[in-house]
Amino acid sequence: MVKPCREKVLQQENVYCVYDEAKIANFSPEMLSEHYWQKHNAVSGSAQGRGTTWFISHQQQQWVLRHYYRGGLIGRFNKDSYWFGGQKNTRAAREFSLLLTLEQLGLPAPQPVAYRVKRQGLFYRADLLSTRIQDARDLVGILSDQGLDESVWADIGATIRRFHDHGIYHHDLNSHNILLDRENKVFLIDFDRGEQRAAKPSWQQANMERLLRSFRKEQNKIPGFHWQEQHWHMLMLGYRQSQ
């Protein structure tokens, strides 16, 4: 049974934080900065994407710290500043809330730990701290090295179906945001701009089409990428059989 989130709010001038007291003790806003963890020698690694994702080891817990960055053309001119339309509408607050929903539903995804919003006039910047999936790699990294059994492809499809059946919309469902741990258990990550909505075939199909484009893109980009169209059919078989 999932423990209830002990959600706490901490506000200091223009900094607004929410954290789960059950997961993080003696919280301070500085914990949403990589510099804090670097000073405490608690950074265990990092990964590069749109920005740097930091892996944190703290009191036998493994976390992921991510700053919100803009993508696309606008990101070239404004890398991390967003229009402020209320705390509940910030990217960090919305993702924290969705991760909390996923945790309560028992879906395989990171759990929310804390978020921070720094307001600057009409704009804000934000950071999110969540749990790290232990001993897991994303599909792109795995398929760059090796193939997967048919049963694993089916499990990937069945897992995505679980999220869809609960109305969980993943804004950027791609092969980088699907992880497998050592036992090949499937996890979805990065729910920025995701939401829970009415389960409808229209957006669910669009989600799957986006994922398919992602596999094809990586296949064209990475020599020896262990993915073929037949693997998509295996994935979709698992997706449909879970209905």
From TrEMBL:
It is found in: Cell inner membrane. It holds the Pfam family Kdo. It catalyses: an alpha-Kdo-(2->6)-lipid IVA + ATP = a 4-O-phospho-alpha-Kdo-(2->6)-lipid IVA + ADP + H(+). It is a peripheral membrane protein. It comes from the Bacteria. InterPro entries: KDO_kinase, Kinase-like_dom_sf. Keywords: ATP-binding, Cell inner membrane, Cell membrane, Kinase, Lipopolysaccharide biosynthesis, Membrane, Nucleotide-binding, Transferase. NCBIfam families: PRK01723.1. Belongs to the protein kinase superfamily. KdkA/RfaP family. This is 3-deoxy-D-manno-octulosonic acid kinase.
